[in-house]
Amino acid sequence: KVLQMARQEWEKYKQFQVAVAHVDAPKEADYYVSRIEKLTGLKDIPVVEATAVLGAHVGPGAAGIAVLGLE
């Protein structure tokens, strides 16, 4: 579902950047990066560990995708 929602967002733009954030979930983050690279051709997608504040709300194991439109 997360990947589908991110894709709907990046398809709105001709140019965009993507980043992946996770809370103690590097395997999930790597999965998202792999799928995004295959779907978009983007390389060097940043992966960051989310802050403790975000982690407190979503809990360990969460991962998400940020999309920034550049148009």
What distinguishing features does this structure have?
71 residues, 3 helices, alpha+beta
- Rg, Å, rounded: 12 Å
Report the order of strands and helices.
Answer: HEHEHE
| Helix percentage range | 40-55%
Strands across the major sheet, in which order?
Answer: 2-1-3
The biggest sheet amounts to: 3 strands, mixed
Mean pLDDT: 93
**How many helical elements?**
3
Q: State the low-pLDDT regions, or none.
A: none
- Shape designation: globular
Q: Helix/strand/pairing class, anyone?
A: alpha+beta
Residues in β-strands, percent: 15-25%
How many beta-strand elements?
3
The CA-CA distance between the termini, in Å, is 25 Å
Give an overview in words.
By secondary structure, this protein is α+β, with helices and mostly antiparallel strands. Helices cover 44% and strands 24% of the residues. It is built from three helices and three strands. The protein has helices at residues 2-10, 26-40, 52-58; strands spanning 16-22, 47-49, 63-69. It has a three-stranded mixed β-sheet. The protein is globular, with a radius of gyration of 12 Å. The termini are far apart.
Which helices and strands, and how do they pair?
Layout lengths: L1 H9 L5 E7 L3 H15 L6 E3 L2 H7 L4 E7 L2
Parallel strand pairs: 1-2
Antiparallel strand pairs: 1-3
Question: What is the compact description of this entry?
Answer:
With 71 residues, this protein is an alpha+beta fold.
